Amino acid sequence: MSAPAVDVAVPEPRGLRAWLARADDRLNPILVKEIRQALRGRYFRNLFWLTVVLATGIGVFMILISSVDNDLDRLGPHFFSATFGVLSFAVHTFVPFWAFQSMGAEWEENTFDLLVISDLRPRQMIVGKVLAAATQALLYYCAFSPFLVSTFLMGGVDILAIAVILPLSMLVSTTLSFLAVALSTLGKTKIARAGLAMLLACALLPVSGGGIAFATMLVEQSSILRDHDFLFGLAMFVSALPIFAFFMYSIGCARLAHDEENHSTALRILVTAINLVSLGWGIYAYTTFSYRDEGWLEGMVAFGFGISFLAYLFFVTEPETFGRRVAKQVPRSSWLALHTLPWFPGGGRGLLLLLANGALAVFVTAAAALPLGDADAVMFVAALYLYGAVSLGLLSGIASFGVRTLRARNAVRIGTLVLLGLTVFLPALGGFLFDITEWMKFEHPLNPFWILSEIASGRTSTVSKGLLVLGAGILLTLAANFARILRALDETSRCSAERREREAKATPTDAATQS
Amino acid sequence: MSALEVRGITKTFRALKAVDEVSFTVEPGSICGFIGPNGAGKTTTMRICATLDLPDHGDVLVDGVSVLEEPRLARKKLGFMPDNYGAYPHTTIREYLDFYARAYGLRGKARKRTVDQVTSFTSLGELQEKLIHTLSKGMKQRLCLAKTMLHDPSVLILDEPAAGLDPRARVELRELVKALGSMGKALLISSHILTELAEMCDGVAVIESGKLLATGRVGDIQKRLQPHATIYVRALCERAELEKALLEEPELANVRSERQGLAFDYTGDDEALARLVERLVARGLKPVEFAGGEVKLEDIFMSLTQGKLQ
């Protein structure tokens, strides 16, 4: 630049100041920007002071009511519930909603393009927005801590309960911010954003209410914190939150990434992780507690599959061929390329991922359940994944022969869900028309949910027709997907070979040494 | 190697071919005007160059780096100023530039120095603490230009940078653009204000209905469109006498009356033109006005484009 620099001799910072300067340099730029904006904006400032004033008002009111009713012994729990109620709405509703608005503002105010062409990566954008939301939540916690801790001094509130509730609430708030930011990346038009905002509000308000109920229950029955089953459930919930947050993070990153980037691999790894974690918790409960008869293992596997279902739907309907950038990421080793193939983008590879995760689930379940003579659990898991393969793979496999555009792929996605609904509901409707009682009750061979529940209950003899239908569906699915799976295999091995060739050209001496 | 090389890019929106096999280059240190009617495909082309959109076919190389295969690397080499951009209203100029400097990975003193440099270059130094929502349109344009220069890109793509600016702001922007060109940066600028472009651009690319109609230096395009120059001459003699002398000259045609003198089409070079003046003087015709016709960007634009709407 031709303009002379305004260079003023500034002494080098030392000690703590030097450390702070270095830390400042490493801060996420989006975090810095968002905090600066939030502190100047009206949304955060007004809501912050409103909630603090509201909490103070409620506190004073509670003290007055308790002293009038001569019920000061119960003041602590009541005061805690009321104050946490205000805090819960602030950190579980206002803060995530702010994160949603903040991400959306990048499109509404035409600043997103400038962010994209800067050196910021999608992950920095998502994490920066969530960190800014978490910082705001932290400010709320700092403001409310004196109120909450004072309830311990009033008596009737276990400090352990407060120590569990506050970090858990912070974790939930951060997870909700990830959800809000991910949702915000899904729609850029005003109508879509309004719909998403309503969807988010529908998710946030019950969580805020549920948070208050949970906190009240924990404060009033703090002995539950020593209950093994409760702790097991709590541990599962806590382990599910980061996975869900990472899931949302991956969706957000994929949405913000360049069209030529790999949008899929991180999500695919995450889906496998969800499968593994749900299997792990299921087997832990199955082998450790008396949960064997309650179908915990099957339930956990079904839960893991259920929350991954939409991700699988996205995978099996992806464009079949690699983008120019992804093609270069295929491992040079053909062995590694073929074994990591299900985690690369592409519809055919998506179906292979589903089958690979299914095989893993069946294998682990068999290892845990067969020694205990529980073959039904293995059958359930196998049937679950096969139903998944049919419901997700059939239409997308047929569509893979002709569908090329995003619009058509979205139609296939919606069509797959509609088809699943129709297979369950149409026979039930037929039951009403032809007076077949079982079908009216959704007990028909096309209903995978009924058949799976029958298998889980050990009543496998009643579902033979259903299993026949499943077998036919598998054959059809294989036929519809055979060609694209072959193409996926071929493309993967070709890209791997091309990479070897490219690298050999780039470093001829290395190639000579290898040969 | 060209600083910016657009290689046969095509972009279709449903049935509409917004950009159709467009190819051109911009050399380092040159300023290329990108002109065309509304909806011609200028912004789409620029967005593809800036890695914001993907072409259906073709590629763009920024300093030899493909925007499709290495978009992150290409972004380090280019600065893009969109026509319709926003800025964070509740931040100051300094905070805004500091944010983008952080985004470009500048740290510590280097960040502070760079922000100082770009604010000084764009004359925003004294306004650093002003909130962005209080700035005028011209100041916001300068701010965006300052932001575009933070990472010292070798290629700058400016989409309608002069739109909505008052005359003073336009002149200032023109000077900034010229200064950037003299620093060796390649600039691709779109604008509807052709007089502005003509004053600062070394070359132009003309696009209409997604197709590139012409590209190159303004004079070269003019020559291609019209192989002769128009010369005007006035002498202190009878017009008929002057006309007779001119008609005897080779490389000269279509002598006609214009104002107080004569105009004619001329196909020779500048050397031959100098000799023609010498001969007129030698014949005692006393030429007092002798002017080559000015090549106007508007003329090129009007002769190339048909005002087709897409």
How do you describe this structure in short?
Chain A is mainly alpha-helical and 515 residues long. Chain A is built from 20 helices and no strands. Chain B is built from 11 helices and 14 strands.
Task: Give an overview of the whole structure.
The complex is a heterodimer of chains A (515) and B (310). By secondary structure, chain A is mostly helical. Chain A has two domains: 28-225, no CATH class; 258-505, no CATH class. Helices cover 79% and strands 0% of the residues of chain A. In chain A, helix 4 (75-108) runs parallel beside helix 7 and helix 11 (296-316) packs parallel to helix 15 (375-399). Chain A is globular, with a radius of gyration of 27 Å. Chain A starts with 14 loop residues before the first helix and ends with a helix. Chain B has 310 residues and is α/β, with parallel strands linked by helices. Chain B folds into two domains: 4-218, P-loop containing nucleotide triphosphate hydrolases (Rossmann fold); 226-297, Alpha-Beta Plaits (2-Layer Sandwich). Chain B is 37% helix and 28% strand. Chain B contains eleven helices and 14 strands. Chain B has helices at residues 42-49, 71-77, 93-103, 108-121, 137-149, 167-182, 194-200, 218-225, 239-247, 270-282, 297-304; strands at 4-13, 16-26, 31-35, 57-62, 65-66, 78-81, 155-159, 186-190, 203-208, 211-217, 229-235, 252-258, 261-266, 287-292. In chain B, strands 6-7-8-3-9-10 form a six-stranded mixed β-sheet, with helices on both faces. A four-stranded antiparallel β-sheet of chain B has the order 2-1-4-5, covered by helices on one side. The two termini of chain B are 34 Å apart. The model of chain B has no long low-confidence stretch (mean pLDDT 86). The A-B interface holds A 1-7, 10, 21-22, 25, 27, 29, 32-33, 36-37, 40-41, 109-111, 113-120, 258-260, 324-325, 328 and B 50-52, 54, 68-69, 71-72, 75-76, 78-80, 82, 84-91, 95, 98-100, 102-105, 107-109, 111, 113, 116-118, 120-121, 125, 131, 147, 149, 151-152, 179, 182-183.
